[in-house]
């Protein structure tokens, strides 16, 4: 049997977070399940992230060039040819139309992951937008062969979530177990703001787990805050058991972004604070549909506003139950399987 190889070009850093690489990991895992091999091409070194990828049986190589540049795409194509890869997956806002065209000019199949129509033209074979706000009008300027994979049926969830597809959540009358997670890096330390808001509630009946990624530069500051807190808070870093933590919790406080799809899948009601411009539209739509509570942009959120939202939500069992059901209907956990099937069909 010929092993079909997939190149994934994505980046992670304090500035961009780890979301692009982690959702591509979900795609890579599904590709492995089809008997394929995956090579990640990264521009920035991250020991924790690379250890995770290698532990999953992925190869990792590095570029020493400006991301999104001509040198970037040249080296990416060179790697694809060296590894005899039939497909390249590209995920990141610094990759544009020229980057796509260069890959296609070499006759390599291309999956382009895009969250909001950020380039002026699309040459990829497949364009994936897994968001609730995805619509074809974002991609009017595209090649005739370009297929669009739009909507939450294509949400990319990692392998550790797949065993939870049929799990049913119990909604407790009072939400006493809280999960705080603001992605892999959280450069503005919104996590600290949420912890301080919790401390302002003056409650001793809450159990809190704070999850941070390996790229978070505020680890020591958070450790110090938690050590001096009267709350029962556990700080966990680089976790691989996120589904278990989400199953444990009654309520999450989180950023917008890919974590929202994981929370929806797990039926965990959440309060969302947006920390990037590209999260606002999605968070607003999720709030409108009653799947999350979006309390606004992180720079404009006060400790008091966070506290008020928490205090109300902790006691509102019916609202949490409704949000949980809506979330589970939105994300079914088969997105990575659907996407890899599309790739395999084009190869066959």
Task: Describe, in plain words, how this protein is organized in 3D.
- The strands form two sheets. A seven-stranded parallel sheet has the order 3-2-1-4-5-6-7, with helices on both faces. Strands 10-9-8-11-12-13 form a six-stranded parallel sheet, sandwiched between helices.
- Strand 12, helix 10 and strand 13 form a beta-alpha-beta unit.
- The chain folds into two domains: 5-161 and 332-347, Rossmann fold (3-Layer(aba) Sandwich); 166-330, Rossmann fold.
- Helix 1 crosses helix 13 (335-347), helix 6 packs across helix 11 (303-315) and helix 9 crosses helix 12 (317-330).
- The chain has 13 helices and 13 strands.
- The protein has 348 residues and is of the alpha/beta class.
- It is 38% helix and 19% strand.
In which order are the strands of the major sheet placed? 3-2-1-4-5-6-7
Assess the beta-strand content as a share of residues.
Answer: 15-25%
Q: Which bin fits the share of residues in helices?
A: 25-40%
Q: Indicate the CATH class of the largest domain.
A: Alpha Beta
Mean pLDDT: 93
The total count of strands amounts to 13
Largest sheet: 7 strands, parallel
| Total number of domains | 2
Rg to the nearest angstrom? 20 Å
The second-level CATH architecture of the largest domain is 3-Layer(aba) Sandwich
Structural class: alpha/beta
CATH topology group of the largest domain: Rossmann fold
Shape label: globular
| Uncertain ranges | none
Query: SSE order, as H and E?
Result: EHEHEHEHEEEHEHEHEHEHEHEHHH
Number of H/I helices: 13
From the N-terminal CA to the C-terminal CA, the straight-line distance is 13 Å
EC number: 3.6.1.57
Domain Glycosyl transferase family 28 C-terminal: 182-326
Keywords: Hydrolase
Protein name: UDP-2,4-diacetamido-2,4, 6-trideoxy-beta-L-altropyranose hydrolase
């Amino acid at each position: 049997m010929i092993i079909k190889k997939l190149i994934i070009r994505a980046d992670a850093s304090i500035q961009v977070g780890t979301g692009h690489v982690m959702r591509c990991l979900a795609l890579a895992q599904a590709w492995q399940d089809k008997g394929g091999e995956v090579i990640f091409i990264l521009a920035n070194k991250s020991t924790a992230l690379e250890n995770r990828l290698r532990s999953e049986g992925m190869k990792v190589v590095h570029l020493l060039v400006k991301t999104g540049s001509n040198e970037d795409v040249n080296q990416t194509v060179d790697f694809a040819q060296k590894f005899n890869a039939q497909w390249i997956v590209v995920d990141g806002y610094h990759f544009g139309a020229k980057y796509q065209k260069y890959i296609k000019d070499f006759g390599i199949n291309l999956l382009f992951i895009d969250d909001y129509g950020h380039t002026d033209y699309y040459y990829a074979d497949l364009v994936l937008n897994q968001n609730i706000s995805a619509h074809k009008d974002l991609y009017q300027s595209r090649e005739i062969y370009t297929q669009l994979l739009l909507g939450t049926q294509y949400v990319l969830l990692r392998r550790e979530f797949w065993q939870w597809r049929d799990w049913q959540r119990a909604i407790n009358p009072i939400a006493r177990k809280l999960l705080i997670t603001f992605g892999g890096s959280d450069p503005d330390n919104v996590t600290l703001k949420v912890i301080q808001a919790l401390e302002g509630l003056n409650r001793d009946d809450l159990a809190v787990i704070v999850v941070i990624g390996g790229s978070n530069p505020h680890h020591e500051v958070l450790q110090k805050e938690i050590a001096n807190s009267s709350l029962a808070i556990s700080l966990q870093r680089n976790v691989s058991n996120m589904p278990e933590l989400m199953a444990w919790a009654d309520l999450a406080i989180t950023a917008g972004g890919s974590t929202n799809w994981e929370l929806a899948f797990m039926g965990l009601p959440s309060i969302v604070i947006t920390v990037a411009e590209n999260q606002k539209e999605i968070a607003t739509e999720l709030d409108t549909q009653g799947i999350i509570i979006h309390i606004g942009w992180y720079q404009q959120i006060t400790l008091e506003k966070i506290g008020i939202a928490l205090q109300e939500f902790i006691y509102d069992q019916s609202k949490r139950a409704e949000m949980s059901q809506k979330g589970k209907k939105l994300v079914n956990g088969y997105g990575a399987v659907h996407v890899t099937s599309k790739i395999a069909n084009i190869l066959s």
